[in-house]
Amino acid sequence: MLGAVYYGPKDIRIEDMPDPVVGDEDIVVKVEMAGVCGTDVKTYLRGHPMFKPPCVLGHEFVGEVVTAGPRVQEISEGSRVVVAPYVPCGSCYFCHRDEMELCQNKDGLGGVFAQYVRVPKNLMEKGLIEIPHKVKSEDAVLAEPLACCLNALEDCDLRPGDIALIMGGGPMGQLLLQSALLCGVSKVIVSEPQKERRELAGELGAITVDPESQDLGQFIKEETRGTGAATVLIALGIPELIPSALHYACPGGTVNIFGGLPKGSQINIDPNIIHYQQVRLVGSFGFAPRHFAAAVELLINGRINSGKIISHSFPLERIQELLELCAKQEVLKAVVKP
Predict the structure, then answer these.
(1) Is 62 helix (H, G, I), strand (E, B) or coil?
(2) 301 within some domain
(3) Does residue 82 sit in helix, strand or coil?
(4) 137 lies in the same domain as 260
(5) Is residue 151 part of a domain?
(6) What's residue 50's pLDDT?
(7) pLDDT tens across 36-75, in order?
(8) Same domain, 269 and 298
(9) Is 161 found in the same domain as 109?
(10) CA 11 to chain centre
(11) Which of 91, 129, 142, 324 sits at 20 to 30 Å (Cα–Cα) from 334?
């Protein structure tokens, strides 16, 4: 099979790799479509401690089961599936606290920027969901990033009637926007400097603002009638946004650091906002199985407009070109078709 092998920053090569060998209780899935995540782009540009080269990157995918081991009963060959890139152990301290996204003993899937991927028994049992054949690949491939968004909104204790502010209109910002609207919020404000991304957020139901040409604080004050946003989600990896975000939240509100920040980032914040106004500063990373299952249901039932989010689709052979475009922010959400 063909696979995109990562050898280090800016070095990814299409190679002929051995086909996955299925075990008695495993399956092999033919990858229909794989999503390019911000983590993939950051790893391609400067490396990542979680991905030791040489390896295959990619963790968002939808595909068809082509081989099932002789002892597999849960799924049959020919089924279309999405698979979570990792599953929790279910027995550690964090799993017992129902904080499975923090599990320290996760089982992970191999990279999916390849024609085929082996899904071992544990991931098949805990992280695989069969989807109807009528569901478009473009919808199903967003299950993992959408699951991360659902986890974040849960962490924010978002309630019907709330006003939410999303800082950043990238693919995750657009998914957060749609997810928040499904939660019954009265208004979602999206702050985004790029015109095309602002326009898309507006089409998807947001009130939009350009933070480079408008006074963001004044805009939020007017849109919230002076109270501030109940939830502020920072969907950009820019540490400097965090101190100002605390000022955009209403008393008792939540500021969520959703976008990953560069290693060694430091911030200076006013602790009195947290103390006297009881603004919560939280972070969200990853998802639990319940978020992944909920994301799949939302996608296969057409509750998320994925067609507006996926902007570029390339064959696997052009993945380096695609990663370069992503690095320059010339695409919104990219997928590859092995």
Answers:
(1) strand
(2) yes
(3) strand
(4) no
(5) no
(6) 86
(7) 999 999 999 999 888 999 999 999 999 999 999 999 998 9
(8) no
(9) no
(10) 24
(11) 129
